[in-house]
Amino acid sequence: MPRERATKKQQELLQFIGDFLKEHDYAPSYREIMSALGYKSVSTVAVHVDGLIVKGYLTKSDKSARSIRLASERSDEEVSHLKWLQSEIAKREAAGDSEQEVEALRKAFDILQN
Fold first, then answer.
1. Among 33, 72, 109, 113, which one is least packed by beta carbons within 10 Å?
2. Are 32 and 65 in contact (CB under 8 A)?
3. Would residue 13 count as lying in a domain?
4. Per-residue model confidence as pLDDT tens digits over 42-101
């Protein structure tokens, strides 16, 4: 299913976040975004960020400062979880566990991977 297209303002925000992440290796704060893009309030930044999360362009960890990431990037923790899940699927297949259990793990893997 294709993503909903980002608005012009959202595209500018995505570009800024991507550039900031490359330069600093951490995400910008909402105030930094507000200043850089000339927004009048932090709530405007939050509206655009939330819209990009809903559209699938960004991810954000709850209750974690500077946790905005481009959806195409994965945190070390996410990569670790995916690797563990892959190994768990392989182990259970080799052990002859029920197909239902293995299929449930595969579905979880697919959900996390997307």
1. 72
2. no
3. yes
4. 999 999 999 999 888 998 887 778 889 888 766 677 778 888 989 999 999 999 999 999
Overall pTM > 0.90: no
Please, what is the end-to-end C-alpha distance for the chain in angstroms? 11
Q: Quick one: tokens of 97?
A: 């566990």
Tokens of 39: 């927004």
64 and 14 in a common domain: yes
2 located within any domain: no
The encoded tokens of residue 103 equal 């299929």
Helices (H), the chain: 8-24, 30-37, 42-54, 76-95, 99-113
Token digits for 49? 């960020």
- Of 75, 76, 95, 99, the C-alpha closest to 87 is 95
In a domain, 66, yes or no: yes
Residue 95 lies in domain? 76-113
d(CA 61, CA 50): 12
